[in-house]
Amino acid sequence: MKLLTSPTTPFGRKVRLAAAIKGIENQIAVEKADTNPPGNAELVTNNPLGKIPVLVLDDGTRLFDSRVICEYIDTLGAADAPRLIPQTGPARWTTLTQAALADGIAEAGILVFYETLLRQPNERSTTWVARQQAKVDAGLDHFEMAPPNWDGAPDYAGIALACALGHLDLRHEKRWRQGRPRLVNWLQQFENAVPAYDTTRPPA
Ligand SMILES: N[C@@H](CCC(=O)N[C@@H](CS)C(=O)NCC(=O)O)C(=O)O
């Protein structure tokens, strides 16, 4: 399998952590993809949205987005490998909802970052940035009150939250850490439990 991604995307990092927890990271060749036109032409042939990550299976099937890829990865690995997403019952919906919130934090954080990276100063909207930042802050406050728990290995919700926080460390100057001691401690516990969090850390 081939994973089209980049060293800085939190969504590609989710996939790499999922693969590591399932013990199948050696089955995935990681390939850097360009998301910016015109260099993204090849990526668009793999995902019409031009977004990463994309997992290309050995038979040529393309999987995206990161949630779909992580669900697929959860079907792989040894029989005793940790399950990332509960298959049935209330725990399934809790995990998926927590992960959706974590992904939403990352998506809003990325929109704030893109505003300065991809838009000229005269195109930027402080109102839009404030609206997205409010989503980041509200999501973080929710997790400060109720971070995802795990027994054994962190599940998919934990993976998604750790990657969202990693994105904010990289692109938002670690501001999320101020006033959120429980979440800071939670991420430290995650790092201790998942060595791949360190090896997939994006370059500063
Ligand atoms: N919901 C998607 C989000 C993927 C996403 O937004 N990826 C960003 C990189 S972090 C991207 O490819 N952006 C390029 C673009 O929007 O043109 C997922 O979970 O995979």
Task: Describe how the helices and strands are arranged.
Layout: E1 2-5, H1 10-22, E2 29-32, H2 41-46, E3 54-56, E4 62-63, H3 66-73, H4 89-118, H5 126-145, H6 156-171, H7 181-193, H8 196-199
Helix pairs in contact: 1-3, 1-6, 4-5, 4-6
The protein binds glutathione (GSH).
The helix count comes to 8
CATH fold-type name of the largest domain: Glutathione S-transferase Yfyf (Class Pi), Chain A, domain 2
Strand line-up in the sheet with most strands: 2-1-3-4
Structural class: alpha+beta
First-to-last CA distance: 28 Å
CATH class membership of the largest domain:
Mainly Alpha
Uncertain stretches of 5 or more adjacent residues? none
How many β-strands, per DSSP?
4
Number of structurally distinct domains: 2
CATH architecture of the largest domain, by name, is Up-down Bundle
The backbone outline, from C-alpha atoms, is globular
Largest β sheet strand count, sense and barrel closure: 4 strands, mixed
Kindly state the mean pLDDT as a whole number? 97
Strand content: 5-15%
Radius of gyration: 17 Å
Ligand identities: glutathione
Helical content band: 40-55%
